[in-house]
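pasting for ref
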Amino acid sequence: MSSCSSIQRDLDRFFKSMISFNNVNPIGSLYEKSQCKDEKTNDKEPKLVEIISYCLNRNHYHLILEQVAEKGIEKFMHKLGLGYTNYFNEKNTRSGSLFQGAYKAIHVDSNEYLLHLSAYVNLNFKVHQFGNSVPKFWMSSWEEYCGKKSNQKEICSKDIVLGQFKSIEDYIKFAEDSLVDIQERKKRGEELGNLFLE
């Protein structure tokens, strides 16, 4: 198996984990669940979080989450990290932790911050481009926000962001303008870490 298809399979598995582990109730083994012929995703199960936007890069990821259950973000991140680590370790015949330290989190304390952060997360695969080259492997909620058809299941609660714009096109322009500003600030060597956990 080529490393390219392996990387894509890992991204697909992480994405599926985001859906399956976003559940107040235990789900058991994701592998065993995926082997069931009549596997169904029950969208009526109580969620831990609402996923506002996401970007899965080859070596890191970004999520904007809204907590909807008590300690929902903490529980979701624990289930996601543990479940994906177990999958990755078994697949690669390894043991031990996969992620470096605990996840980092910032409380979104203003609407303006939420809007710019959504642009940053949705377009994060472009934030990390080298020259004019966009990284080959990534998954993002950008297409979901743009209303484009995709093979990926739509998982985001977009209304909190898109409801503030007259149209999807207005949001796209806002996000792309915001990305230009972020890239310019990176070129000037300005610190983005406090804002975007880079």
